[in-house]
Amino acid sequence: MPYTGELAALTTAFLWSFTSLFFTSASRRIGGYWVNKFRILVAAVYLAITLLFVSGRIFPAGLNSAGFMYLAASGIIGLSLGDNYLFKAFVLLGPRVTLLIFTISPIITSIFAWIILGETLGLLPLVGIAITLSGIAWVTAERGFEAPNNSYADKGSKTQGVMLAIGGAVCQSIGLVLAKAGMSQGVAPLEATFLRMLTAAVFIWIYGLFLGDIKQTGAKLKDKRALLLLAGGAVCGPFLGVWMSLVAVKNTQAGIAAAIMAAVPVMVIPLVIIFYKEKVSWRAVFGAIATVAGVGILFLA
């Protein structure tokens, strides 16, 4: 099917726009580390059930050691570490500023795709990426740099929040490229998503055991509101969203996929209008148009 990768990337951005709202709210209730820990486990269960229905098995047939190592490293770096940094940044900076910083992700992804996979981008894709990022930055930079007021928050400064957001962008970019390398060993996107999620879950839960957070885990599970937000976010993000992101990088260049997926801040605009009754300026509208134009160029590239 033409433009499979680009359409999957656009679907990913749509799903992740919902995810950012779900997980920001949940992180402010119980903390970013706990949100990441629970949502990875929930998503792994969703994916295992889906694989059983679709293929009758959980693990891919004929998986070689190279494919497993790439996908395991991708899960630990991109999901365990990268998303943990992301959720803490959401709490410290708010989703808008965090997503603004995350607009560097396509550039980082393109660099690592060139180093690891040997992918290079022509002039037209580079123009499309530049226009897409400009539109996103224009939208998300509209208001002042203010930290949100949180009823619950991971403690830290704005500087720490910025560093966490940058660290999350770097980790997610590396994870995306490693995932593509793993799928090149003959692993389908759904199976690759499950392997990434499973290794990430094993890593973060073993890490929790070393920290001795078993009692705290039980206490966090008592927050029913946070659990509902987690369930919704897990469906949109690590289940369907991550699955679609791997469909995207498998079927188009990693830098192009990352640029389209970076349109999340623009797609959040109608959600903010619907759910929070927030007014949107002409600046945000023009930024959205520029972003759509950039995505259109990437489809034509």
Name the features.
single chain; 301 residues; mainly alpha
What would you say this structure looks like, in words?
- There is one protein chain.
- By secondary structure, the protein is mostly helical.
- It has one domain.
- It has 13 helices and no strands.
- The radius of gyration is 18 Å and the shape is globular.
Topology, please?
Blueprint: H1 4-30, H2 32-55, H3 65-93, H4 95-101, H5 105-117, H6 123-140, H7 158-183, H8 189-211, H9 214-220, H10 224-251, H11 254-261, H12 264-276, H13 282-300
Low-confidence stretches: none
Shape: globular
| Class derived from helix and strand content | mainly alpha
How many structurally independent domains? 1
Ends distance: 16 Å
Total count of helical runs of at least 4 residues: 13
Please count the beta strands (DSSP E, at least 2 residues each): 0
Portion of residues within helices: over 70%
What's the overall average pLDDT, rounded? 85
User: What profile does the largest beta sheet have?
Assistant: none
Assess the beta-strand content as a share of residues: under 5%
How do the helices and strands follow one another from N- to C-terminus?
A: HHHHHHHHHHHHH
Specify Rg, calculated over alpha carbons.
18 Å
At a glance:
With 301 residues, the protein is an all-alpha fold. The protein has helices at residues 4-30, 32-55, 65-93, 95-101, 105-117, 123-140, 158-183, 189-211, 214-220, 224-251, 254-261, 264-276, 282-300.
